[in-house]
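Researcher: I'm comparing several assemblies side by side, and this is the next one on my list. It has 1138 residues spread over two chains. Same procedure as the others: predict the full complex and return the structure.
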Amino acid sequence: MPPDVTAELSLLYGAYALMMKPFKSYEDMTAEDYTAIGLKCGLEVHQQLLTTRKLFCRCPAGRYGSDYDAEILRHMRPTLSELGEYDGTALMEKKTRKNIHYRLHRDTVCTYDIDDTPPFFPDPYAIDIALELSLQLGLGIVSEIHIARKQYLDGSIPAGFQRTAIIGVTGSIPYLDRRIGITQLSIEEDSCREVSDIGHDRIYLTDRLGMPLIEVVTDPDMRTPQELAEVCQVIRWLCRSTGKVRTGYGAARQDVNVSVEGGTRIEIKGVPQITRIPLLVYNEAMRQCALLHIRDTLKQRGITKDTLNCTTHDVTRAVYRTPYGPIRTAVDLGHRVKCVTLHGFAELLNYTTQEHTIFAKEFSDRVRVIACLTELPNMVHSDTASEQLSVRDWKGIRKRTQAGDNDALILVWGDEADTTTACQEIIIRATEATIGVPNDTRQAHKDGTTGFERVLPGAERMYPDTDLPPITIDADRLEGIRSQLSTPPWDRQDRYRTLNVPKESIAPLSASPRANLFETLIDELKIDPVFAAVVLMQRFKCFSRDGLHPEQLTDQQIQSVFAALAQNKLTRRGVVRAFRWHLLATRHNQDGAIDIADVAADLAEKLYSQDELNFMITQTLEQSRTIEFPDSGAHHRFVIGIVMREVGSVVESATVLRLIEDAMRSHQPQDNQEEVA
Amino acid sequence: MVEDRLKGYRNISRDVLSKYKVGIWSDVEIEATNGRFRGLILPRSETADDAHIVIKLITGYNIGIATATITNITEHGRREVQYKIAEQEFPTDPNKPNITLFGTGGTIASRLDYRTGAVIPAFSPGELYGSVPELADACNLRTEKLYGVFSENMGPEQYIKLAEKIGEEIAKGVDGIVIGHGTDTMHHTAAILTFMVQNPPIPIVMVGSQRSSDRPSSDAALNLIKAVKVAAEGDIAEILVCMYGPTSDQYDLLHRGTRVRKMHSSYRSAFRTIGDIPLAMVDLDGIHELRDDYHRRRDDREVSINTAFEEKVTMVYYYPNMKPDIIDAIVEKGYRGIVIAGTGLGHINKPIYEAVKRATDKGVHVYMTVQTLWGYVQMYVYETGREIMELGVVPAANMLPEVAYMKLCWTLGQTDDRDEVRRIMLTPISDEITDREPYNGYLIFQGAIPEVQEFLRTIKR
């Protein structure tokens, strides 16, 4: 969406006019367009594992709720990394001076979770699942797991770090006609859920804290937003195909890494739905292009990192009488209003950086996150129309700050400490503007745009965990897991296509825990693959929609019903009916005492002889003679309906149809003879 | 040089590294049967096995690769990493009090020791200022590392040197002393220092951390900032322990050295005053005294240092089924004093009466304390108690077992005279025995009780 203000700006800014580069709309962007800007993207897929306990303690896994019994307060301080450096993110979080409140529920949290007890050995089952997935991804498996502490000073983990460890590195998965590199797979503990973050107080719920999850990191091999979403789906299906991962909202989340030529790798955190990925990538690509353009424009204006000139003034007195609400309130509260003058930045703050978003938001985000001025609007700037501050107000401010027409001004308000931090951050962000795209971690907004979350952390935030020794993965354990590996979904999908499995069932079936059963049904029982797939995927889905629980059926139960079909004891219709009856019966009888084999046998017992069938058909024809039908076709369908309801489970419909047709022909009244002929 | 480059690697792993002519800090690509791995070879912990090589990946993660799986190693370069703590000169201000910080081995800021996988404390004023700049708000700091031992390795030698050093610093005119100490035996050291260093004119504050200082949620900096504040600005001229108070990051508690005890193996708020209330709460705003019966700061430099210590003293934690031979063995080995931690009001079983009698007859000094920690020894209530006293066992009132132990060591270092020992033991120096236990001295809440749940539900301000 090209901002349509070039002409106007040229007038305003004369020789400094912005040469706007049009950026195509999301819908119009083609693969070639993305290649032209040098888009590169990669993924970090987080997937919770289906274990009974948390990763580093013995608290039960997977119990969620916002109810809590107790609250504790913590503050975080940056610490040195193993290699003696402070992490940039850590220093940023220190500036925010947050009070971090944790809400604890006695059922889901122990003293480990609040970092008052050292860790217990990690859940071996979780490690097994991680090993299984690592092998599926073709990763090199480490022989010794070294637990690391990854610093998170936002407080999302009470310890201030997440325990995490690499299980495998360097592998790949197939995608279209090429392979996508997999950088690594790690196992880690999940973080807290944020409740709110207002001013200097951030509140977290701890129910999710400590849940085991894996993180699969891909190389930046995807070239379009759509490819990224598709590869994400492939990894999701792979995880699900093990049957050992959690599903449901939030059980799988991904971070998306995006960069364009000349830009920076930007991480968009915690995208819960794959469908949201493409637009986020588009907007981030656009943002990076816009920031590079702003940098170039600044350069043309002679503003670089070294020549940048920003000044800060307290302008509380200059806006003392303003009617503008937010500042009015601040002044009344005795707060300060401060102004940062960005020399030579005029009109840049209005430049479109994302859909419906302008450059000024980059400053506003920093002020909100780092200076904790969370109530929006938290700033105004001189590039906006005078609907917020009057021309007179701006005049007063410009006089106080001695700013010229070529300068942009940003006003913030709040207490002394916060406004001081805010002004510093604005200057830091302006400095970054002269360099290009700053190293941010960004949060995904619902509208497909992103906002600043924190400075992108580096390898400096990793620290070896001194509380636990390395854990050896012995060869037997690894071979045991390798020998049990099932076919990966992409290989299964290739086969399904050759078997003509309905298109919509291919991907879900390949990742379904029933995939192995499907193979057994078609290989051993010689069941028609299309029928087997339709039952296992579509029929079962219908059952679920009807409030039944087909997921409770064991593979063995399902196989016994299909065996009846293979032995001609049941028809296809009978198979579906057996499942439905059984599921209905179990729903009403919670003890689950009803054996599905009995249900199938009950159905199959009613084997009919040819004579019995003929008799039943003749009877039905006789009885229906008194009913008036609009035509013989309707009569035909009526008889089929009655007979099939009775025998459909065990007699193929083709047989029934043939017999009925024979019977109807021989019972045809004389006057209709011609019609039939 | 080659030695250094294989730090921590032994036998097989050492041979493998030598074979491929690589060592620690080599940037390598390792080909193994399990895959290919690229990273920086790190030193290995000396307690770890000899079958793995540790590398740091570019992402900052460490992994171990079994030597048995390695088929080739190629060196791409070398990148030695020097772990340094950001060091900045500690500012001096003539208007601020001068504080001396003694280090004994606890961690305040720390770095990793590759050989052991453990953490090494940062300690110079510059290092501390780099990590905890808030310290400069309160004082001018001088630091002196006396030892680098885990607190369980503290003993008489260290106690005596520490007491003497305190005496020297007081004579030099410092305004307060802070002692960094591991937490495990901090209360033992606090007790003995109370006896060895009497009537100091300035605060002497012991401090440590329950969660190591290499983690963002550590209590190390919080405790240190408060301890320095107490030493610099506080009015309480005693041996004190300053440690994390509640479950939340709010305040530290200031405990008297003779009444404090570590009550949890890992909780931040492990240190509690037993059988009494703490002296004060300390937060960033200041020191909030909870009582006023303390020794006040003075301008003089008077202090009495008495470093007497008898090492042949032991403590016996009584249990049912205890056999007399335990007591006999102690006496036989030449021990001169025994502190018993008895059950209930101060009891032991009948079968060991004779052994105790034999001990006291041989001139061994036997004192009774209680395992319950809270409450007084009261040996008149039951017949059995009176019988035990007849054996020559002296009830030590509400002295904590560890404190009684330290005091008996100190006392027997001065005299062997039964009455004199008894007089010293039972004459309180600094509340190791109190006349009365306040009604709110004993408070152990039980979880899940409605009023306690209500209390825990919100952070108290």
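Model: For your comparison table: The first helix of chain A runs from residue 6 to 13.
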